[in-house]
Amino acid sequence: MFKAIYLTQGEDGRTHADMRDLEDAQLPLYDKGNVLVDIKYSTMNYKDGLAITGRSPVVRSFPMVPGIDFCGVVASSEDPEWKPGDKVIVNGWGIGENHWGGLAQRARVRGDWLVRLPEGMSMQDAMAIGTAGYTAMLCVRALENNDVGPDAGEVLVTGASGGVGSIAVAVLAKLGYKVTASTGRPAESGYLRELGAAEIIDRSTLSSPGKPLQKERWAGVIDSVGSHTLANACASTRYRGTVAACGLAQGMDLPLTVAPFILRGVKLIGINSVLVPRDERVDAWTRLAADLRPDALASMSHTIGLPAVFDIAPDLLDGKVRGRTIVDVNRLE
Prior knowledge:
Low-confidence stretches: none
Order of helices and strands: EEEHEEEEHEHEHEEHEHEHHEHE
Distance between the termini: 18 Å
CATH class of the largest domain: Alpha Beta
CATH architecture of the largest domain: Alpha-Beta Complex
Helix content: 25-40%
Number of domains: 2
Radius of gyration: 20 Å
Strand content: 25-35%
């Protein structure tokens, strides 16, 4: 038996979440490469908050164990690449949405979804990074791949106090970029400067409707907010700059014109972290092990036990949670 957060849907369409004892036999089976993992740590991400509260229909089938990422130790494996005792990370591939996820003490996944825990990285640090940090690194790589290096000019990070934003700020700063952090929480300015932000701006300067084309400022942008914030970021990006978009905290709409793209050659790159090919995942995690200061991880993360996810889920959606929330799935108080 193992403990798991368990989601069901009532006849009224509402999501019901509780913690239950489950058996290994209840875990899903796949057509090949089944790997059983003893989970040590998971995380709370925006999608997990939506799944647990039922505020948005991110869960595709019920019942569901939420948790879009986890780190643990292989217990048994049908995949020849993995053996008992291997330390592994999994994120994306629809876990916590289409397939049972990481907010549990055990999971069964396909072997080709797994990434080996990088040398020198602890399992707790891996989940301090989690899907948010992995997504942030994909955004950094998008800037690099489009010639936005540290010498190109200022880089804007929106939603900077959140999980993706915090790690993006820390990674970019360590790589030598001049980072401007946008946040709606002025009290977090000290925290963001500790991570390496050179300047802090209030999100209100970006979150309202703006001109289609604005003064050029940003060489690159990492945006986890969407809506007017992303539109204004694009409108103020410099000639041939790059904007990496990975989130929709403000909204799914994008009220902009083609002006930044046809007059300045701005590139808008969409970042989908769920179905990224495995070689790119391995590269991202290897880069995170090298390009993220351990002290930055400590300052941007805190750890809760499995039952505490019910309380933190609404706060996460309401923007009240700083940085990363690690879930120790074996802590049951």
